[in-house]
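**User:** You know discrete backbone vocabularies at least as well as I do. Would you mind producing a protein record, from residues through to fold? Write it directly below this note and I will take it from there.

**Assistant:**
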Amino acid sequence: MFSIPGLKVVSLTDAAATRIRAIMAQSGRDDPQVPALGLRVGVKKGGCAGMEYTFEVARAVEKGDEVVTEKDATVIVDAKAVLFLLGTELDFKSDRFSSTFVFNNPNQVSACGCGESVEIKPRAENALAAQ
């Protein structure tokens, strides 16, 4: 597990925690034989800005994953995404026409015009030691 005193990989707003709990409740009904452990978040290459955030219901914790439980909601950060998401606040916004998770990521350098992809620079471990 990756940890730096005083710095969480991901923190959750009340809105994000509420939405994650709702997703987990629905996922439990979808497959009661294999319980949902949390919402897995990660990053992958793609989009015009270079990277995209990913989501899926996690039914297992993989080696190196970071498990964050906050406000009765669990997020499992993919091991390959930890340095890209370090210090990120996950929020959930809903309006008349859409609803989406919002990443308030201090490592995000830029985003594309459509908002579907981002450029993220991973935090260097030596920069973290200075914090």
Summary: Residues 14-30 form the longest helix (17 residues). The two ends are 19 Å apart (CA to CA).
